[in-house]
Amino acid sequence: MTRLRIRGISLAALTALLGLLAACKPSPPCAHCDTLVIAAVNEPSSLIPPLAVESVGRDIDDQLYERLADLMPGHAPTDSSGYKPGLASSWEQVDSVTWRFHLRANARWSDGPPVTAGDVVFSFTAYADSVLDALARSTIAGHITATAADSTTVLVHFDHAYAEQLYDATWNVRVLPAHIWGKIPTSDWAADTAAAHLVGSGPFKLARWTRGEVVELVPSTTGAPPVPALAHLLWRFVPDPDAALNLVLAHEADLLETLTTPERAARVEADSALAVIAYPSAAYGFVGYHLAGNGPLSDRRVRRALNMAVDRAAIATQLFGAGAKAPPGPISQVLWLWSDSIHTLPFDTAEAAHQLDQAGWKAGPDGVRRSGARKLAFDILVPGTSTVRRRAAEALQERWRQVGAAVTVTAVDFPVFQQRLATGKFDAYVATYLDEPSPRGLADQWTKAGIGALNFSGYASPAFDRLLASAGAEPNTAIARTKWWEALDTLNADAPALFLFAPVNRAAVTRRLGPISINPWSWLSGARGWKLSDGGQ
Q1: CA quadruple 118, 83, 464, 433: dihedral positive or negative?
Q2: Can you name the residues that pair with 444 across neighbouring β-strands?
Q3: CB within 8 A of 282, min separation 6: which ones?
Q4: Could you report the per-residue pLDDT of 226-260, keeping only the tens digit for each?
Q5: Which of 241, 293, 297, 348 is 20 to 30 A distant from 136 in Cα terms?
C-alpha cells in the first residue's frame, strides 16, 4: 500500500506535527477573567438608595452611588481624621453647626451630566422625606439640611452642636441625581423599575437587572479614577444560604459574603479552587430577657447568676469557629468601643449556684430549682429560619440545666418571632444585630426611650441612660470611649441580656481573585481595585 506524502512528509507525520504545534499554543484567554459573580441570598426590593433596606441592595449601591466622604474601618465617627474623600474631595467645619464640602472636580453622573451641589441638596431632602421614609429619616428630618454655596460647594447645617455631625453628614446619605428623581413624585419611587433611572457617580454603572435572577454592573467611564479592572460584577440571587453555597461549590459563583458556620467553611476549604477569607464581622448575638412581670427573669440576681453559669467564649467558638469571641456588651468586634477593659460577669458555675441559692431558688430532688411552688423555668424564643440561633439556644438550655433551670426552646416563623417580641410574648429570645460605626443605636435597644422600639426586654435604668447620653455628647474620642465603657459596665452589671457571640465572617472566594482586603462595614466597597486571573486555565 502506497502512503500519500507531501513534499517528503507523510500524512501521519504531518498530523502528529500539527497536533504537537497545537499543544504548544498558548491557552486561549479565560472567558471569565473579567467577570466576578457574587452569590447573594434574596433579591433587593429596590436599588434606589433611600429605599434600599436589604444588605444586598446596599452592597450594590456601594458600587453605584457615593457618599460625600467615607469613614475608614477602625475609626470612631467623632475622629475627623478617619474619613477619606468620596464625592467630596475636601471639607471643613465652618462653625459649631455648619460643615462645608467641596465636590470632586469633574464629578459626573454615569449618564453624562455633572454632579452639582444641587444634587446633594436634593439628596438630603429625599432622605428626610416622610413618604420615602428612609432608615436615616429620623436622624435627618428636622435636624440636618443642606444648601448650595455654589455649583460645587455644599453647606450642611445642623440644628445643634454635637460630636457626630461629620458622620451624620456622610454615612447616612448616598447622593442621588436630581435631574432624574427630581422629576418623579416620591410617592412613585418605590414602584419605579426603570433601570435607566438607577444612575450614580460611583465606580460602576448598572448594565441590567433581570428580576429574580441577576444584577449586572459594568465600569462607569465617568467615575473617579482609577477605572475598575473588573469588566463585570454579577449578583446571582438565590433563596437561601445553602443555595448560595452550592453556587460557589459548583463554580458558578466566585464569591459569597459569609459562610456562617465552621461546617460550611470546611466544605469550601476542601475545594482546591476556592479559599476562605476571614474578616471581622459587624454582627453580634445575644439572649435578651423579658424583665416585665414577676417571672424569674425579672429578678436581677437570677439574671446575673444565669449569665455567670455560661462559658460564653466556648459557645461562640462552638457556633462560629476560631476567631469568634464573647462580646463585652452589645457590640461587634468591628466597633471602635471593643475592649477587654469593659467589665463583664465572670464564668463561675459555683458562684452562679450560690447566687441562685441566695435568691431563694433551691435545687429539688429532680435537679430543678424551686422557690416555693414555682420552678425556675422559662422558654427561649428563636426564629425557625436561623440554625445558628437555635443551636445557641440549645447550648444555653444544657448549661442552664446544669445549674437547675428547666429551659425550653421554641422556634417560630420569623414574622411570628417579630410579632411576639413586639408584644412581649416571650421569656427570653436570641437575636443578632448588625452594628453601624456609631454606637448611638444602643439607645434604641437598651434605654427607656427605646421601649416600644428595639428595647424588647423593657430594660430601664436611669443610671445607664445618663451615662449613654453623656458618652454620645462627648466630642473628644478618647474621653468618649471611657464614658461608653462606663455605660456598658452598668448594663453588664444589671444583666438584661447575655451577650453571647461576636463572630468573624468567613467569605468563600475563588482563588482566581487576587489578594483582597475587605472593609467590614461595606464588604464589597474595594471591588474597584480587585482583579481576576485565569487560574492557569
Answers
A1: positive
A2: none
A3: 332, 334, 335, 434, 435, 436, 520, 521
A4: 889 999 999 999 998 899 999 999 999 999 999 98
A5: 241
Supply φ then ψ for residue 55, to 5 degrees. Answer: -60, -35
Query: Counting every residue, how long is the chain?
Result: 537
| Predicted pLDDT of residue 5 | 33
pLDDT interval class at 8 (50, 70, 90): very low
Q: Is residue 508 a contact partner of residue 523, using CB atoms and an 8 Å limit? A: no
What cell does 86 get? 468620596
Report how far residue 104's alpha carbon sits from residue 192's, in angstroms, rounded to the nearest whole number: 29
Beta bridge partners of 428: 289, 380
pLDDT band at 19 (very low <50, low <70, confident <90, very high): very low
Instruction: Fill in the amino acid letter for 199.
Output: V
Average pLDDT over residues 213-234: 93
Residue 374 has which C-alpha cell? 414555682
β-partners of residue 71 are: 83
Contacts of 525 (CB under 8 A, 6+ apart): 62, 70, 519
pTM for the whole thing?
0.84
C-alpha cell at 257: 459574603
